[in-house]
Automatic annotation (TrEMBL):
SMART domains: DEXDc, HELICc. Zn(2+) 1 binds at residues 445, 448, 485, 488. One of its GO terms (cellular component) is primosome complex. Component of the replication restart primosome. The keyword Isomerase applies. Belongs to the helicase family. PriA subfamily. Keywords: ATP-binding, DNA replication, DNA-binding, Helicase, Hydrolase, Isomerase, Metal-binding, Nucleotide-binding, Primosome, Zinc. InterPro entries: DEAD/DEAH_box_helicase_dom, Helicase_ATP-bd, Helicase_C-like, P-loop_NTPase, PriA, PriA_3primeBD, PriA_3primeBD_sf, PriA_C. GO terms for molecular function: 3'-5' DNA helicase activity; ATP binding; ATP hydrolysis activity; DNA binding; zinc ion binding. It comes from the Bacteria. It comes from Asticcacaulis biprosthecium C19. This is Replication restart protein PriA.
């Protein structure tokens, strides 16, 4: 970052006040503009400047008074947006550099919320008094709730229904659309609203956190088994920080998937107000309101998904990263970054505490704790009388499920089926976990062997029976399932291979016809309100068997749920990327942790074809340390993270020949550097996506090497044709 130098005006020389401006465009450096006389400009101000023939927005990152011998173009105007606090600006520029992104591109992302005008009117729904033609419990709750006008999302959440129920009632005239009263007050969280009554081990953890808080920058791993009360404990630290410094701001980062009503409800119960939330599904006007509230310091507590890290905080006192191991903290599109890693840097810049909470920490964080770079606070027991579930492996080689009555393939073993019966008999609930959406992950033609895939893309189409479509989860492409093989024209020759949650539902319905079974996946609960509605029905025991993807694996407490069955424990191990074993371990640990969360003891059964695998052994023996030791050793031997650093370079082009030629040429310019190895170019595992061919390089560096410097140096050596797109991924998580 350019240091801010104010040269004193020298009386004999004509000095110009020059602003260094990062324009919101992919320009490699800050540009100089003259500050017109009488314009009041400071660092962090928004400006409009000329660039070529266009007018573009930018941010002032430095001011210098200097003698210049050529006329500079002047700043044109200053938009009326709150300036970016200086430490946030420093952080953004640093992050641009870290992710090898042009600063203007990066800042453009951070300022996206300002692209929409301030909201003037917001519309909501209120009841009219007209009776609905048909009444259901859900509709009744909406009508009861809508005494005063409320926004669509809020109303659906408050009534615990999906948004469709609200809009349906509006269509019938039971609700009407009205303008909501304008309200720009920001409710302040009250740290003393409802303090927790911590148990002794939670209190001890809280006291350790208080000691850390006094240190300024303090990275902490809050490591506790599922249900031990990590959330209870860190909420007390949030309260401590808010109380200690009336200007301090707090950010709670959650995986996108965990931003449910359950968590928001807990925050509201603890602090007495709706906490500002930031994630993919908030509206544009809230986005702007929150951005401005954070930049002016009026919003002191934010809960959000990874991108909430790039809000313009004035003074951060604490960042909490809940489920710090979760891979959704890694942004995989556009600018690629890891929110956890960057959050630690941000905390260091602001002298803030950063608490990483998890029952299954990432190997990176655990290693930092072991090496005492992070303070390690542990919670060993579940709160109250709840105990961890018994975990047993089912060897599927010996218990392969047979065929059903109509000769259909079955997926649940006799042992699991018997255990489900027992659980249902006790009137308790079952969760069957399979991290695969839809009906079948693959559809192939039994006549010609053709595997159905999206046009110009290397990934298989997933069959969704509920919608009758074949869907590409990578590109979003979808089509009706054809009657005729598009390849060989055979009729009715397409067969579904392998199970997804919909297929398990089918099996459950045929095996347990009296049980109420439902799928919990991002397809059945696409938004917060419908997810809240489903969670409520599970809590109310309106459902006996939940068939779930990872959408349900986290965060929820279902007191009557005592059996978790993992349909395919080996699933995540395939594909062989760096973190496959670690991720499988974490996900299964989370999923099995859903069982027996209150007074009734729980049990988890894992169906596996590789019971001897270290992941399965560690899960069965509840021996986390054994797994991490094994995993750490194999990473250390290869020099992979956390024992080394990685960067991926992904090249994409429509023209395969051009791509081949350029990647071979780029390989010739690999700088020869000690402690850094480059692998590739290789075809990406998904070598063709949406008609774009893809090649990859992988850079591995020892920990003490300047990885970004190496990449920049290398890329500068050769000019890349415009027809080739380059993605730099520092610390890649996806190897596709
Ligand atoms: N001191 C306490 N007093 C009352 N209830 C508590 C206390 N500690 C934990 N609980 C309850 O126990 C359950 C688990 O607590 P919490 O969600 O904080 O644990 P966690 O460690 O964050 O769990 P997970 O790993 O699943 O996210 C919650 O329902 C919570 O309300
Ligand atoms: Zn065919």
């Amino acid at each position: 970052m350019t240091p801010v130098t104010e040269y004193l005006a020298d009386s004999r020389e004509k000095l110009t006040l020059t602003a260094k401006v990062v324009v919101l465009a992919p320009v490699p450096e800050a540009l100089d503009y003259a500050v017109p006389d009488g314009m009041d400009i400071a660092i962090g101000d928004h400006v409009v400047v000329p660039l070529g023939h266009a007018k573009v927005r930018g941010l002032v990152i430095g001011l210098i008074r200097e003698a210049i011998d050529f006329p500079l173009k002047p700043i044109l105007s200053k938009p009326d947006d709150p300036p970016v606090p200086e430490n946030s600006l420093h952080f953004w520029l640093w992050a641009a550099n870290w992710t090898v992104t042009p600063p203007g591109t990066f800042l453009n992302g951070c300022l996206r919320a300002l692209k929409v005008a301030r909201a003037q009117v917001r519309l909501g729904y209120v009841r009219t008094g007209i009776e609905p033609a048909r009444i259901t419990k859900a509709r009744e709750r909406v009508i009861e709730t809508a005494i005063l006008p409320m926004g669509l999302g809020e109303l659906a959440l408050a009534a615990g229904v999906s948004e469709g129920v609200v809009t349906g009632l509006a269509k019938e005239g039971v609700l009407e659309k009205v303008a909501l009263p304008f309200d720009d007050r920001i409710p302040q969280p009250d740290p003393d609203f409802a303090p927790a009554r911590l148990n002794p081990s939670q209190s001890a953890a809280h006291q350790l956190l208080q000691m850390e808080m006094a240190k300024g920058f303090a990275p902490v791993l809050l490591d506790g088994v599922t249900g031990s009360g990590k959330t209870e404990v860190y909420l007390e630290s949030v309260a401590d920080v808010l109380r200690a410094d009336p200007a301090a701001q707090v950010l709670i980062l959650l995986p996108e998937i965990a931003l449910t009503q359950a968590v928001l409800g807990r925050l509201k119960a603890r602090f007495g107000v709706e906490v500002a939330q930031w994630h993919a599904n908030i509206g544009n006007s809230s986005r702007r309101r929150i951005w401005e509230g954070v930049a002016t310091g009026k919003i002191r507590l934010v809960v959000g998904a990874r991108s909430a890290l790039f809000l313009p905080y004035v003074r951060l006192g604490l960042i909490v990263i809940d489920e710090e191991h979760d891979s959704s903290y890694k942004q995989e599109e556009g600018v690629r970054y890891h929110a956890r890693d960057l959050a630690v840097f941000r905390a260091r810049m602001d002298g803030a505490m950063v608490v990483m909470a998890s029952a299954t920490p990432s190997l990176e964080t655990l290693t930092n704790a072991e090496k005492e770079r992070y303070t390690w606070i542990r919670l060993e027991k579940r709160h109250g009388t709840a105990v961890l579930p018994d975990i047993e492996l089912i060897d599927m080689k010996a218990h392969a499920p047979g065929k059903g009555q109509k000769n259909e393939q079955m997926w649940l073993s006799d042992i699991l089926v018997a255990e489900v019966w027992e659980t249902l008999k006790r009137r308790e609930q079952v969760l069957l976990f399979l991290n695969r959406r839809g009906y079948a992950p693959l559809v192939l033609c039994k006549a010609c062997g053709e595997k159905m895939s999206a046009p110009n893309t290397d990934s298989w189409l997933v069959e969704h029976r509920s919608s009758g479509r074949l869907v590409c989860h990578l590109t979003g492409f979808s089509m009706r399932k054809p009657k005729i093989c598009p390849h060989c024209k055979a009729v009715d020759s397409l067969v579904s291979v392998g199970p997804g949650v919909e297929r398990i539902l089918e099996e459950v319905q045929s095996r347990f016809p009296d049980a109420r079974a439902e799928v919990f996946s991002s397809d059945t609960v696409p938004d917060a309100a419908s997810s809240a509605a489903l969670i409520r029905r599970i809590e109310d025991h309106d459902i006996d068997i939940v068939i779930a993807t990872q959408a349900a694996a986290k965060g929820h407490n279902f007191p009557n749920l005592t059996l978790v069955g993992i349909v395919d424990a080996d699933l995540g191990l395939k594909g062989g990327d760096l973190r496959a074993a670690e991720r499988t371990f974490q996900l299964l640990q989370q999923a099995t942790g859903r069982a027996g969360r209150s007074v009734k003891p729980g049990k988890a059964l894992l169906q596996t074809y590789t019971p001897e695998h270290p992941v399965m052994q560690a899960l069965a023996h509840q021996d986390r340390e054994a797994f991490y030791a094994y995993e750490g050793m194999s990473r250390e031997m290869a020099g992979f993270p956390p024992y080394g650093r990685l960067a991926a370079l992904i090249l994409q082009a429509k023209d395969q020949k051009l791509l081949d030629r350029f990647s071979r040429e780029l390989a010739l310019f690999i700088p020869n550097t000690d402690g850094i190895d480059v692998y590739g170019p290789a075809d990406a595992p998904l070598a063709l996506v949406r008609g774009q061919w893809r090649k990859r390089f992988l850079v591995r560096a020892d920990r003490n090497r300047d990885l970004q410097g190496f990449v920049n140096h290398w890329l500068a050596a050769i000019k890349r044709p415009n027809a080739i797109r380059l993605i730099v991924d520092i610390e890649p998580y996806s190897f596709l």
